[in-house]
Amino acid sequence: MPAPSPKNLVFFLSDNHACGYLGAYGNPLARTPNLDAIAARGVRFDNAYSASPLCCPARAALATGLFPHQTGFWDNAIPYDGSRESWMSRLRDAGHEVVSIGKLHFRESTPANGFTQEIHPMHILDGKGGVHMLLRAVDREPVNAGQWNLYMDRSGIGTAPYQAFDEKVTAAAVDWLGTHREPTDKPWVLFVSYPSAHPPFTVPADFYREGDEASVDLPPGWQADPGDDHPAVAYRRRTLRSEPMTTEDEPALRKVMAGYLALCEHLDLEIGKVLAALDEAGLTDDTRIIYTSDHGEMVGAHGLFGKSCLFEDAIRVPLLLAGPGIPEGRVVDAPVSHVDLYPTLLDCVGAGADPLADDLMGVSLWQEFDAAAAQRPAFAEYHAAGSASGGFMLRDGRWKLLYHVGMPRQLFDLDADPGELVDLGPDHPKAEELEAKLRRICDPEAVDARAKADQRKWIAHWGGADAVASEALLIYTPPPGEPAEME
Predict the structure, then answer these.
(1) With contact defined as beta carbons under 8 Å apart, do 339 and 317 qualify?
(2) Nearest of 42, 96, 62, 44 to residue 350 by alpha carbon
(3) Distance between terminal CA atoms of the chain?
(4) Do 320 and 25 form a contact (C-beta atoms < 8 A)?
């Protein structure tokens, strides 16, 4: 398609929202009418991938259009710090107003981040973050038992600080739109970022449906036998304490899934309020919408919770685009990546070509709206908590390679095995072919060594391995003004 005419842009980003928990992606229990409406009047990408399945590296990739191995933003203790140019700074320096509201998960608020204004910014805790993640580089990563308890013991009816912060983000976005009714010389970008649907999956009673507990389809491989684990999964299971689930755990798992559905409904409601304010301000016809999430959520698949791995539930994300010039009701099956959003955003507001094009591996999604768009391999990587060595993913059509440094490679046929339960083995001819394509993107062994070297530097910065190991484990980043939960 030709380059679009310049328009305003509202970019919604959520946290931890898996594709399988939206109505538009086929879940009949998902109550997400506002997100479904965006999909109905725009383009839905069915195979969109996060650059890395963890908040900080994923958000750094969204900001820079570059993968972790290109930037060195590896984990939640080495987050984006403004040292690499972002789409925000590109647009701000070109005269656009670029405002963020809500979760950023960068190191701190600074003009180097690129926004003209940060409203209610949520960054890593105390500019330091989860430093225990760094210990993977010296074979001393602790067991984070709090992650398992966050799901199995705290899902259901109640209150959690993230939902109140979601509502605060919405209120600020509604107020901002109310002051921007008049046309401007250049299109603006409003980045509205929610911490939901991040655990704990504790939600008000108005959203929780006990009937969902009985109705949910249990995830593939939820009763995984740890004896069958690939070494990468075994390490993750141990360090993030993913205990083997049996039939006795089924009621708790169903409550986790019902809580997640309810939290996704709350998120959708908040987005709907912003969309209503956009309409009330008379801005809908001059504004494009993007919705995505920084990564997915396992929700019990393979007997795992959270993200921090390269299975589809953790790495595949919802991606919706709608608004002026965007085809209506279209579904794109071709794999795309979060790094494609950098050039897409520039196109949306008419900012023109990017001088860093040689470094950017993504392409503007305006080239992908055609249902017959050329298939490109999708790539992702992971170098943080729950990984003994660097993990890399390459998706090429129906085939998906997982390559963990120093471990047997894995191959999955996603057409025949969407749940990734049958590893076709390291010697399959397709595994060799996909590894060769992966190595044209990066050298996994060299990247793994560089990530760990950087993590060791930060261990030294924070006083050495013993000092880092003595720190309490951060369970999740609190919203501004709330105390952190530590273990």
Answers:
(1) no
(2) 96
(3) 52
(4) no
Distance between CA atoms of residues 191 and 250, nearest Å: 38
Here the tokens at position 313 are: 């539930």
Q: Contact, 394 vs 196, CB < 8 A?
A: no
Q: Tens of pLDDT along 15-25? A: 999 999 999 99
Tens digits of residue pLDDT in 203-247: 999 999 999 999 999 999 999 988 899 999 999 999 998 889 999
The answer, as to whether pTM is greater than 0.90, is yes
Structure tokens at 148: 């398992």
Helices (H), 87-191: 87-93, 145-152, 161-178
Three-state DSSP at 413 gives strand
What does the alpha-carbon distance between residue 28 and residue 368 come to, in Å, rounded to a whole number? Answer: 27
Contact 137, 456 (CB under 8 A): yes
Q: Which two tokens stand for residue 120?
A: 């209610």
- State both tokens at 130: 């989860």
The per-residue DSSP string of 21-48 comes to GSGGGT-TT---HHHHHHHHTEEEEEEE
Which residues neighbour 437 within 8 Å (Cβ) at sequence distance 6 or greater? 377, 394, 396
Q: What angle do CA 50, 81, 444 make, to 5 degrees?
A: 45
